[in-house]
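HUMAN:
Sorry, I am quite new to this. Are you able to go through these amino acid letters and fold codes? The numbers rather puzzle me.
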Amino acid sequence: MGDDIVALGEQGVVSEIHIFNTYLKSSDNKILIFPNGPLANGTIINYTKEVTRRIEWTFVFEHSAEIASIEQVIMSTLKANKGFLQKPEPIVGIQKMSNEGREVKGRCWVQTPDYSKYFFKRQHLFIEALREAKIPFAQS
């Protein structure tokens, strides 16, 4: 009870478990009712079982952007933010190169209850730091 899971293609927090059904509350406050048979035979992803969780951001930059500068700005932002755990160490690297540009990922770990807060509310820190460093984002 209380775990944030994905089951049978739906995400929610387990609110009740009964002999025949399990109830999830979705993020928009819907109650999802699952028969336990299909639930027991399917895959369940549990987002809140562990105490820490990895956050990953993806940025796409123009091919002309200097990789060392990109990595330095993103890593500095990761290390300067007190909510981001420093063990395991944050990591930044090129995920892929495409016609659209260079796709760079920044990864770090946070306490599981803080995941949404840091993922959604801290993206602007990266964008501001990258713009201040005049690193060009890819144009789509």
